[in-house]
Amino acid sequence: MILEPSTARPAANRRSRRRFARLVRRTLAVAGLLIVAGSRGEAGVIADWIASKTTPVAMNSTDANGTPDRSLITRWLGKDRTPFTSGFFNDSPTLLGLRAWEKSKTVANPVTESELSAAMKLIDSGQLETAERMLKEIAERETKNTTPYGEKAQFWLAETQFRLQKYVKAHDSFELLIKKYPGLDTKYLDKMTAREFQIAQIWLASEDPKAKPLDWKACFDGRAHLIDSNGYAIKALEHVRQHNPQGALADDAALRMADHYHIVGDYESAALYYDQLINDPDLRKSEYREKALLSSVDSKIKGYAGPEYDVSGLEQASDTITKIFTEYPERRATAEQLYHTNDLIKDQHAERAYGVAMYYMRVRKPASAEYYFGMILAKWPESKWAGEARKQMLLTAKMPRKASQPSKIMTMPGAPDPSTMGGNGGNNGNIGGSMNGLMNSVGGGMGGMGGGGMPN
């Protein structure tokens, strides 16, 4: 049986093409209207017309039951919301950024305002205890929603506690303030960091011969912590730097932390904080920069434990001395102590090299010992260790020489011997043993050097 071709499919294709053509024409017509409207400078004309025909005028319109209309088309085409209409945007309740609460509209609260006003009058009249209790109630209530009233109340709560010499509570209140209001107003931020710096100075007064330290009762009446007041003081100084890195006290805090560690003998930490003050871009122009450079050198020299330990601190100290001469060239004529320190660093390097050379002498490696003795004579000829090196070189000349034994470290099959510079001597020797005589001897030699190959 022969099937006749169906005529239904071509007819369906023609209808589809006609529908597509109509769609294209309508699209072009709408685009033309948009272009015309745009050329007249009234980009919102069409959107206004659509909104008037299809949606309520404003977002606060209601339906038949009185319920606010929150449909998508209403929110998008409402005249007070869409950017395509000639209307305007209302202030959005959601603002991005750390200080969004400050930019939003604050609802006036006459009760809270009157309470704050009364608390301020109590502070002015000297009734600090009563003011503290009132401000604590206001701050606990208002900081939950991070309102500006809470910011003011929390700051003055901490300030009142500071004036009452409740330094522990004051420090905690200041920290709660910056936690609740990370975008703290500048007028409060500068005062807060100044108070934290004062509190740290009070807790570290025992290190300052010119200051009067707190008595033993301070640990029990809220003026100081019962344990590790110095640690809390360093924490307060860290907060001064972190919360206000470009403030007037940032470099003072960095220097005070470094001085504290230098006083207690933690020279490694002291050098770290001195270098922070030196290298921090925000503190490059600090008036304490020269003092920090000199103290950094001193800390690194005192922190050097001896020739058996890491020598990187000495190298950094030498680089810092070079930086001092570069930034303060006038010091070259009067910096006798710096020149002496530089000589001391060189002497320490020579002593370290001498110790390494003597080690090779003890293990009967005269060639290695001669290398380090020669380094001392070449790099530090004026050091006292140079004379000792010359004497020892006379002894190494009389010591018997023998070839170094291959490494005895076991390796995986096919792995390079760690005693070589990445070469695979053992494999080379084994490969060479299976070749002709010339290659066999070369391979055997390489194998002997590598520690695994044997000629066949």
3D structure, described in words:
The protein is an all-alpha fold and 456 residues long. Helix content is 62%, strand content 0%. Helix 10 runs antiparallel to helix 11 (250-264) and helix 11 (250-264) packs antiparallel against helix 12. The relative contact order is 0.03.
User: What order do the helices and strands follow?
Assistant: HHHHHHHHHHHHHHHHHHH
- CATH architecture term of the largest domain: Alpha Horseshoe
Largest sheet: none
What is the residue-mean pLDDT, rounded to a whole number? 78
Percentage of residues assigned to helices? 55-70%
Write down the overall geometry.
Answer: flat
Residue runs with pLDDT of under 50 for 5 or more positions: 1-6, 39-43, 55-60, 79-104, 423-456
The CATH homologous superfamily of the largest domain: Tetratricopeptide repeat domain
* CATH fold-level topology of the largest domain: Serine Threonine Protein Phosphatase 5, Tetratricopeptide repeat
Q: Determine Rg (CA atoms, Å).
A: 41 Å
Oligomer: single chain
The count of strands amounts to 0
How many H/I helices?
A: 19
Distance between the termini: 87 Å
Strand content bin: under 5%
Classification by helices and strands: mainly alpha
- What count of structural domains? 5
